[in-house]
Recover the amino acids of this structure.
């Protein structure tokens, strides 16, 4: 509002009368430029730097019910290698991230809030949650003094994969023996620790001596370097009575070895098959005899089966961290420009714990 003075004349007498004129004030429009990594060439074997292309685009103004979020931490995970094959070349690389809301026309996602969303490899993302059926974005719950990056790790999809995959699929019982492949990875390292919490003897299979040493540090009863050890013999020594539960992240020949040493009524949870993501299927002996003779149960799962219990898993894992019973490790790569590098290294086993890119 502005007070102006308008001059009028009556009977040759000049008079002044104050009036109010409403002036339109428009908020300045902030223009944003987003960076995004494109799936530029179909993968042939292991991903390579030239399979990706960095592009920029201008972010359009928000529509009703949308919000704009700026990436803070981005996840790189094995599943991306397979799931991206369902998208055409030229698509934005898929993946989850922790981001901060910078503009919003959605009251459920206020400016300043930190959210998790499957926004892909982007620095800025516009989202309308109403248009998403599964893997909906959500405002992060309170983590207290714990780092926000855990929202894409132990206190997010990764942690829930370990929590629900082990407890709902493998259903371990106190006194049983649990074997975990990919044990030093983001999911596997948590699975083993939850197994210990539930009273199991836990055997981890990992690919370097450094990883095996870390597994022992966080409570695994035994860690086997599958690259250098005779896994079959080492597994017999670690589990002379056989394996009751097997949480499988890798598949292939390693899984065939473990399956042969499963006990009657053993349970296998299949979270992934990373050993075949880069190089294609591995020829293994027919598993049917083991399944019939030992009456084994094998079940694959997607963590989004438990969407309705999502925050149960997050809260329980958070309590275990706060109690000192669950430990985590992050391999953090700095810089959005290093997304392909972090992804390629993770696919080659270069990470311990969760692989993360910090923007």
């Amino acid at each position: 509002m502005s007070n102006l003075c308008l001059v009028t004349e009556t009977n040759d007498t000049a008079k002044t009368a104050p009036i109010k004129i409403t002036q339109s004030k428009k908020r300045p429009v902030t223009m944003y430029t987003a960076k995004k990594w494109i799936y530029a060439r179909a993968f042939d074997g292991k991903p390579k730097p030239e399979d990706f292309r960095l592009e920029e685009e201008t972010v359009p103004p928000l529509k009703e019910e949308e919000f704009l979020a700026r990436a803070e931490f981005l996840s790189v995970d094995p599943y991306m290698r397979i799931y991206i094959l369902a998208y055409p070349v030229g698509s934005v690389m898929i993946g989850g991230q922790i981001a901060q809301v910078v503009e919003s026309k959605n009251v459920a996602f206020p400016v300043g809030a930190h959210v998790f969303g499957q926004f892909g490899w982007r620095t800025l993302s516009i989202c309308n949650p109403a248009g998403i059926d599964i893997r909906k974005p959500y405002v992060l719950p309170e983590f207290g003094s714990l780092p926000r990056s855990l929202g894409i790790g132990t206190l997010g999809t990764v942690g829930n994969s370990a929590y629900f995959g082990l407890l709902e699929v493998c259903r371990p019982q106190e006194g049983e023996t649990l074997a975990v492949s990919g044990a030093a990875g983001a999911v596997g390292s948590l699975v083993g620790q939850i197994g210990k919490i539930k009273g199991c003897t836990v055997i981890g299979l990992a690919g370097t001596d450094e990883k095996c040493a870390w597994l022992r540090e966080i409570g695994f009863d035994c860690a086997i370097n599958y690259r250098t050890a005779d896994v079959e013999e080492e597994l017999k020594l670690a589990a002379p009575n056989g394996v009751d539960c097997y949480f499988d992240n890798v598949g292939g020949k390693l899984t065939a070895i473990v399956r042969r040493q499963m006990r009657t009524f053993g349970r296998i949870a299949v979270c992934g098959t990373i050993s075949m993501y880069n190089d294609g299927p591995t020829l293994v002996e027919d598993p049917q005899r083991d399944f019939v003779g030992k009456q084994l149960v094998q079940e694959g799962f997607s963590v989004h089966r438990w969407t309705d219990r999502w925050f149960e898993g997050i809260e329980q894992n958070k309590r275990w961290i706060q109690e000192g019973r669950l430990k985590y490790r992050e391999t953090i790569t700095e810089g959005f420009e290093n997304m392909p590098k972090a992804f390629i290294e993770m696919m080659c086993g270069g990470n311990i714990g969760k692989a993360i890119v910090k923007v």
Notes: The longest helix spans residues 157-170.
